[in-house]
Amino acid sequence: MAGNKLNVVPLFQVMTLVVVCMLAEAPGRAEAATNITCEQVTNWLTPCISYGVFGGTVSPECCQGIKDLIAAKRTKDDMRASCSCIQKGAAMIPGIDYDRINNIPTLCGTSCHYKVYPSTDCSNWVWAILVMTLVVVLMLAEAPDRAEAEASITCEQVTNWLTPCISYGVFGGTVSPECCQGIKDLNAAYYTKDDIRAACSCVQQGAAMIPGIDYDRINNIATLCGTSCPYKVYPSTDCSKVV
Protein backbone atom coordinates (compact mmCIF):
# COMPACT_ATOMS: atom_id res chain seq x y z
CA MET A 1 0.00 0.00 0.00
CA ALA A 2 2.77 2.43 0.92
CA GLY A 3 4.48 1.77 -2.39
CA ASN A 4 1.30 2.66 -4.28
CA LYS A 5 1.01 6.00 -2.49
CA LEU A 6 4.61 6.89 -3.26
CA ASN A 7 4.03 6.27 -6.95
CA VAL A 8 1.00 8.55 -7.35
CA VAL A 9 2.90 11.79 -7.99
CA PRO A 10 5.49 10.33 -10.41
CA LEU A 11 2.65 8.61 -12.30
CA PHE A 12 0.80 11.93 -12.51
CA GLN A 13 3.95 13.64 -13.80
CA VAL A 14 4.38 11.01 -16.50
CA MET A 15 0.74 11.41 -17.55
CA THR A 16 1.21 15.19 -17.69
CA LEU A 17 4.24 14.74 -19.94
CA VAL A 18 2.22 12.46 -22.22
CA VAL A 19 -0.54 15.08 -22.49
CA VAL A 20 1.98 17.81 -23.27
CA CYS A 21 3.59 15.75 -26.01
CA MET A 22 0.29 14.66 -27.55
CA LEU A 23 -1.10 18.19 -27.75
CA ALA A 24 2.17 19.65 -28.98
CA GLU A 25 2.54 17.13 -31.80
CA ALA A 26 -1.10 16.73 -32.86
CA PRO A 27 -2.76 20.13 -33.41
CA GLY A 28 -6.54 20.03 -33.75
CA ARG A 29 -8.75 21.21 -36.59
CA ALA A 30 -9.70 24.25 -34.52
CA GLU A 31 -6.21 25.64 -35.16
CA ALA A 32 -6.68 25.83 -38.93
CA ALA A 33 -7.47 29.56 -39.07
CA THR A 34 -5.66 30.75 -35.97
CA ASN A 35 -2.23 31.92 -34.91
CA ILE A 36 -2.48 30.00 -31.62
CA THR A 37 -1.35 26.38 -31.56
CA CYS A 38 -1.96 23.65 -28.99
CA GLU A 39 1.79 23.58 -28.43
CA GLN A 40 1.70 27.22 -27.31
CA VAL A 41 -1.36 26.67 -25.12
CA THR A 42 0.32 23.65 -23.55
CA ASN A 43 3.52 25.56 -22.83
CA TRP A 44 1.60 28.42 -21.23
CA LEU A 45 -0.73 26.30 -19.11
CA THR A 46 1.37 23.31 -18.06
CA PRO A 47 2.29 25.10 -14.78
CA CYS A 48 -1.45 25.19 -13.97
CA ILE A 49 -1.99 21.42 -14.14
CA SER A 50 -0.87 20.77 -10.57
CA TYR A 51 -3.44 23.23 -9.20
CA GLY A 52 -6.11 21.81 -11.50
CA VAL A 53 -5.64 18.35 -10.02
CA PHE A 54 -4.44 18.87 -6.46
CA GLY A 55 -5.62 22.39 -5.58
CA GLY A 56 -3.57 24.45 -3.16
CA THR A 57 -2.04 27.70 -4.41
CA VAL A 58 -1.91 28.87 -8.01
CA SER A 59 1.74 29.40 -8.93
CA PRO A 60 3.11 32.65 -10.39
CA GLU A 61 4.18 30.64 -13.45
CA CYS A 62 0.59 29.48 -13.97
CA CYS A 63 -0.74 33.05 -13.70
CA GLN A 64 1.85 34.29 -16.16
CA GLY A 65 0.86 31.53 -18.58
CA ILE A 66 -2.81 32.48 -18.27
CA LYS A 67 -1.98 36.13 -19.00
CA ASP A 68 0.21 35.18 -21.96
CA LEU A 69 -2.62 33.09 -23.39
CA ILE A 70 -5.18 35.87 -22.95
CA ALA A 71 -2.84 38.38 -24.58
CA ALA A 72 -2.45 36.06 -27.59
CA LYS A 73 -6.20 35.70 -28.23
CA ARG A 74 -6.91 38.34 -30.88
CA THR A 75 -9.65 36.75 -32.97
CA LYS A 76 -12.63 34.44 -32.52
CA ASP A 77 -10.60 31.64 -34.11
CA ASP A 78 -7.86 32.17 -31.53
CA MET A 79 -10.45 31.83 -28.75
CA ARG A 80 -12.00 28.73 -30.28
CA ALA A 81 -8.62 27.10 -30.82
CA SER A 82 -7.38 27.74 -27.29
CA CYS A 83 -10.71 26.56 -25.84
CA SER A 84 -10.46 23.34 -27.86
CA CYS A 85 -6.83 22.73 -26.85
CA ILE A 86 -7.61 23.19 -23.16
CA GLN A 87 -10.65 20.93 -23.43
CA LYS A 88 -8.68 18.14 -25.10
CA GLY A 89 -5.80 18.44 -22.67
CA ALA A 90 -8.00 18.48 -19.58
CA ALA A 91 -9.84 15.36 -20.77
CA MET A 92 -6.55 13.44 -20.73
CA ILE A 93 -5.50 14.46 -17.21
CA PRO A 94 -6.75 12.10 -14.48
CA GLY A 95 -8.37 13.85 -11.54
CA ILE A 96 -8.72 17.24 -13.22
CA ASP A 97 -11.23 19.53 -11.49
CA TYR A 98 -13.02 21.64 -14.11
CA ASP A 99 -14.47 24.12 -11.63
CA ARG A 100 -10.99 24.63 -10.25
CA ILE A 101 -9.34 25.25 -13.62
CA ASN A 102 -12.14 27.61 -14.68
CA ASN A 103 -11.49 29.69 -11.57
CA ILE A 104 -7.76 30.11 -12.22
CA PRO A 105 -8.04 33.38 -14.22
CA THR A 106 -9.99 34.98 -11.38
CA LEU A 107 -7.35 33.86 -8.86
CA CYS A 108 -4.72 35.37 -11.15
CA GLY A 109 -6.54 38.71 -11.29
CA THR A 110 -7.66 38.44 -14.90
CA SER A 111 -10.53 36.93 -16.91
CA CYS A 112 -11.11 34.36 -19.63
CA HIS A 113 -13.67 34.56 -22.44
CA TYR A 114 -14.95 31.03 -21.85
CA LYS A 115 -15.34 28.25 -19.33
CA VAL A 116 -14.19 24.78 -20.33
CA TYR A 117 -16.10 21.63 -19.44
CA PRO A 118 -16.36 18.29 -21.26
CA SER A 119 -19.71 19.43 -22.70
CA THR A 120 -18.49 22.86 -23.88
CA ASP A 121 -18.88 23.43 -27.62
CA CYS A 122 -15.79 25.52 -28.28
CA SER A 123 -16.92 26.26 -31.82
CA ASN A 124 -20.09 28.04 -30.71
CA TRP A 125 -20.29 28.70 -26.97
CA VAL A 126 -17.92 31.67 -26.74
CA TRP A 127 -19.47 33.56 -29.56
CA ALA A 128 -23.05 32.85 -28.59
CA ILE A 129 -22.53 35.22 -25.67
CA LEU A 130 -20.76 37.82 -27.80
CA VAL A 131 -23.47 37.69 -30.46
CA MET A 132 -26.10 38.06 -27.76
CA THR A 133 -24.19 41.05 -26.43
CA LEU A 134 -24.28 42.65 -29.86
CA VAL A 135 -28.02 42.01 -30.07
CA VAL A 136 -28.48 43.71 -26.70
CA VAL A 137 -26.47 46.71 -27.83
CA LEU A 138 -28.51 47.10 -31.02
CA MET A 139 -31.87 46.57 -29.33
CA LEU A 140 -31.22 49.11 -26.60
CA ALA A 141 -29.75 51.61 -29.02
CA GLU A 142 -32.68 51.44 -31.42
CA ALA A 143 -35.60 51.01 -29.01
CA PRO A 144 -35.42 53.58 -26.18
CA ASP A 145 -37.50 52.81 -23.14
CA ARG A 146 -40.42 54.89 -21.89
CA ALA A 147 -38.33 55.79 -18.84
CA GLU A 148 -36.28 58.02 -21.14
CA ALA A 149 -39.24 60.31 -21.88
CA GLU A 150 -38.30 62.94 -19.30
CA ALA A 151 -34.57 62.16 -19.22
CA SER A 152 -31.61 63.52 -21.15
CA ILE A 153 -29.85 60.13 -21.00
CA THR A 154 -30.69 57.55 -23.67
CA CYS A 155 -30.24 53.78 -23.70
CA GLU A 156 -27.88 54.22 -26.63
CA GLN A 157 -25.56 56.32 -24.46
CA VAL A 158 -25.80 53.92 -21.53
CA THR A 159 -25.03 51.00 -23.84
CA ASN A 160 -21.98 52.74 -25.31
CA TRP A 161 -20.62 53.57 -21.87
CA LEU A 162 -21.20 50.17 -20.28
CA THR A 163 -20.52 47.67 -23.08
CA PRO A 164 -16.86 47.31 -21.93
CA CYS A 165 -18.23 46.08 -18.57
CA ILE A 166 -20.13 43.10 -20.01
CA SER A 167 -17.13 40.77 -20.02
CA TYR A 168 -16.57 41.32 -16.29
CA GLY A 169 -20.29 40.96 -15.60
CA VAL A 170 -20.34 37.51 -17.20
CA PHE A 171 -16.86 36.10 -16.64
CA GLY A 172 -15.46 38.05 -13.69
CA GLY A 173 -11.72 38.64 -13.49
CA THR A 174 -10.47 42.23 -13.66
CA VAL A 175 -12.57 45.29 -14.45
CA SER A 176 -11.07 47.00 -17.49
CA PRO A 177 -10.06 50.70 -17.54
CA GLU A 178 -12.58 51.20 -20.37
CA CYS A 179 -15.37 49.84 -18.17
CA CYS A 180 -14.40 52.15 -15.29
CA GLN A 181 -14.30 55.13 -17.64
CA GLY A 182 -17.76 54.23 -18.89
CA ILE A 183 -19.09 54.04 -15.33
CA LYS A 184 -17.64 57.47 -14.57
CA ASP A 185 -19.01 58.96 -17.80
CA LEU A 186 -22.46 57.63 -16.93
CA ASN A 187 -22.27 59.08 -13.41
CA ALA A 188 -21.23 62.45 -14.82
CA ALA A 189 -24.30 62.46 -17.09
CA TYR A 190 -26.82 62.30 -14.22
CA TYR A 191 -28.52 65.69 -13.84
CA THR A 192 -31.98 64.73 -12.62
CA LYS A 193 -33.81 61.85 -10.96
CA ASP A 194 -35.27 61.03 -14.38
CA ASP A 195 -31.76 60.56 -15.74
CA ILE A 196 -30.99 58.13 -12.92
CA ARG A 197 -34.24 56.21 -13.43
CA ALA A 198 -33.73 56.02 -17.19
CA ALA A 199 -30.19 54.69 -16.81
CA CYS A 200 -31.34 52.15 -14.22
CA SER A 201 -34.03 50.92 -16.60
CA CYS A 202 -31.60 50.64 -19.52
CA VAL A 203 -29.07 48.67 -17.45
CA GLN A 204 -31.84 46.40 -16.16
CA GLN A 205 -33.18 45.67 -19.66
CA GLY A 206 -29.72 45.02 -21.05
CA ALA A 207 -28.62 42.75 -18.20
CA ALA A 208 -31.77 40.64 -18.56
CA MET A 209 -30.79 39.78 -22.14
CA ILE A 210 -27.21 38.72 -21.43
CA PRO A 211 -26.82 35.00 -20.62
CA GLY A 212 -24.72 34.29 -17.54
CA ILE A 213 -24.79 37.84 -16.17
CA ASP A 214 -23.95 38.05 -12.48
CA TYR A 215 -25.98 40.84 -10.85
CA ASP A 216 -23.90 40.98 -7.68
CA ARG A 217 -20.82 41.36 -9.84
CA ILE A 218 -22.20 44.19 -11.98
CA ASN A 219 -23.49 46.01 -8.91
CA ASN A 220 -19.98 45.96 -7.46
CA ILE A 221 -18.28 47.45 -10.52
CA ALA A 222 -18.68 51.07 -9.43
CA THR A 223 -16.94 50.31 -6.13
CA LEU A 224 -14.11 48.50 -7.92
CA CYS A 225 -13.72 51.58 -10.12
CA GLY A 226 -13.40 53.87 -7.10
CA THR A 227 -16.77 55.53 -7.52
CA SER A 228 -20.42 54.89 -6.63
CA CYS A 229 -23.77 54.23 -8.27
CA PRO A 230 -27.08 55.68 -7.00
CA TYR A 231 -28.89 52.35 -7.47
CA LYS A 232 -28.48 48.57 -7.48
CA VAL A 233 -29.91 46.71 -10.46
CA TYR A 234 -31.57 43.32 -10.08
CA PRO A 235 -34.46 41.76 -12.04
CA SER A 236 -36.78 42.81 -9.22
CA THR A 237 -35.58 46.43 -9.01
CA ASP A 238 -38.31 49.03 -9.61
CA CYS A 239 -36.32 51.69 -11.44
CA SER A 240 -39.29 54.09 -11.42
CA LYS A 241 -38.83 54.45 -7.65
CA VAL A 242 -35.07 54.98 -7.68
CA VAL A 243 -34.09 58.42 -6.34
Q: Your description of this structure?
A:
It is a single chain. This protein is mostly helical. It has helices spanning 2-6, 8-25, 38-45, 49-54, 60-72, 76-91, 98-102, 104-107, 125-142, 155-162, 166-171, 177-188, 193-208, 215-219, 221-224. It has 15 helices and no strands. Helix 10 runs antiparallel to helix 12 (177-188). The protein is elongated and about 55 Å long.
List the helices and strands and how they pair.
Layout: H1 2-6, H2 8-25, H3 38-45, H4 49-54, H5 60-72, H6 76-91, H7 98-102, H8 104-107, H9 125-142, H10 155-162, H11 166-171, H12 177-188, H13 193-208, H14 215-219, H15 221-224
Helix pairs in contact: 2-3, 3-5, 9-10, 10-12
Function: Plant non-specific lipid-transfer proteins transfer phospholipids as well as galactolipids across membranes. May play a role in wax or cutin deposition in the cell walls of expanding epidermal cells and certain secretory tissues.
Domain Bifunctional inhibitor/plant lipid transfer protein/seed storage helical: 38-122, 155-239
Signal peptide: 1-32
